[in-house]
């Protein structure tokens, strides 16, 4: 099963927690363990008025494919409206997520992720690459949420499961549609992708659902919700609550805030789509910051190809002047590589130097294992 393949990728790289979990909701003073000094931030936050914001694209626009392709090349991220995901479903899944994170710590730890596991309650896996801890908590669902939900709510788990599964189904359909729009903008057809069947429909892809909680922080300027990273996916669909916190790195500009837009979902290009596009699409580096007064929630759908299918630059995008930048690798293998090398993962699978004008964002030595 795809979920087992994803989980297996982490078994060789267990996550060792430096100390017991803290209840971030009850802390009145920032612990030294969570202090991130401003000197460690290599890029400023953009505040100048002439810097463009992340594109907002209407999926019903007749030029949506071209607009999506342009955004993937220039930003690696865009906000999507008119995506046909029901507003009530977004509200329901946010309510269930908040219900989960409002549980007492002792209760949440009943569904704790094992050190070598991928699903359940816990801190972000990237935390092991930093000396300071993150001001956040998470809950990862791979496949059915039933097992962990029963641990959290022995007699009241059904609504959580039904809501999560409904959301997963809708996200899968949207992710598949977006994948073909992104590839279509590069002139790629369904016949060009070897891991598609004769009907042009993808084999069963893999996905994970990541719920994120960022409690109000007593000293937000010295804390970090989620450290800078790129996603180890083909694409990520992010639902962020109406509280700002997501920032993306724009080359030559710095960190740009992605303010919540009514009804919009944020789409990130991940490392695997960067590989498939032979570097044409930017695997966007992003982070989450926290604030002093408001509790922020987000929900990321991490979508990739079948876990055991080799991914490499697509043949149509390779020629004498544009050799393949990366060797073939499966998503399962890449997850293991990312768990070991973190932001040097892409460099470790590169087979030739980038062409002129191409920037590999993973060379900046600052980046989540999806």
Automatic annotation (TrEMBL):
Belongs to the iron/ascorbate-dependent oxidoreductase family. GA3OX subfamily. Its cofactor is L-ascorbate. The keyword Iron applies. Pfam families: 2OG-FeII_Oxy, DIOX_N. It comes from Olea europaea subsp. europaea. Keywords: Dioxygenase, Iron, Metal-binding, Oxidoreductase. One of its GO terms (biological process) is gibberellin biosynthetic process. PROSITE patterns: FE2OG_OXY. Pathway: Hormone biosynthesis; Plant hormone biosynthesis; gibberellin biosynthesis. InterPro entries: DIOX_N, IPNS-like_FE2OG_OXY, IPNS-like_sf, Iron_ascorbate_oxido_reductase, Oxoglu/Fe-dep_dioxygenase_dom. This is gibberellin 3beta-dioxygenase. Residues 205-305 form the Fe2OG dioxygenase domain. It is an enzyme of class 1 (oxidoreductase). PANTHER family: 2-OXOGLUTARATE (2OG) AND FE(II)-DEPENDENT OXYGENASE SUPERFAMILY PROTEIN-RELATED.
């Amino acid at each position: 099963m795809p979920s087992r393949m994803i989980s297996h990728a982490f078994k060789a790289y267990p996550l060792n927690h430096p100390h017991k979990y803290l209840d971030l909701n009850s802390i009145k003073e920032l612990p030294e363990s969570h202090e991130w000094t401003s000197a460690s931030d290599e890029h400023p936050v953009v505040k100048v008025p002439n810097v463009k914001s992340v594109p907002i694209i209407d999926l019903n626009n007749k030029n949506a494919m071209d607009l999506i392709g342009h955004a993937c090349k220039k930003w690696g991220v865009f906000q999507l409206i008119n995506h046909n995901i029901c507003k009530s479903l977004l509200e329901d899944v946010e309510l269930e997520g908040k219900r989960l994170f409002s549980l007492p710590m002792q209760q949440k730890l009943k569904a704790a992720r094992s050190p070598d596991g991928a699903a359940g309650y816990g801190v972000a896996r990237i935390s092991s690459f930093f000396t300071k801890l993150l001001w956040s908590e998470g809950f990862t669902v791979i496949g059915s949420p039933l097992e962990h939900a029963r641990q959290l709510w022995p007699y009241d788990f059904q609504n959580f499961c039904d809501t999560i599964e409904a959301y997963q189904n809708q996200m899968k359909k949207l992710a598949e549609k977006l994948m073909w729009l992104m590839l279509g903008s590069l002139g790629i057809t369904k016949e060009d992708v070897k891991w598609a069947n004769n009907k042009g429909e993808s084999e069963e892809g893999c996905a994970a659902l990541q719920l994120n909680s960022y409690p109000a922080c007593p000293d937000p300027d010295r804390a970090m919700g989620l450290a800078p990273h790129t996603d180890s996916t083909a694409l990520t669909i992010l639902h962020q609550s109406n509280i700002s916190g997501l920032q993306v790195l724009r080359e030559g500009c710095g960190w740009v805030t992605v303010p919540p837009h009514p009804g919009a979902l944020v789409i990130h290009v991940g490392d695997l789509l960067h590989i498939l596009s032979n570097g044409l699409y930017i695997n966007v580096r992003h982070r989450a910051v926290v604030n002093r007064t408001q509790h922020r929630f987000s929900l990321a759908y991490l979508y990739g190809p079948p876990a055991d299918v080799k991914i490499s630059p697509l043949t149509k995008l390779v020629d004498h002047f544009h050799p393949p930048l990366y060797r073939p690798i499966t998503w399962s293998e890449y997850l293991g590589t990312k768990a070991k090398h973190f932001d040097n993962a892409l460099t470790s699978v590169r087979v030739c130097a980038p062409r002129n004008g191409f920037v590999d964002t993973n060379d900046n030595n600052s980046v989540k294992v999806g």
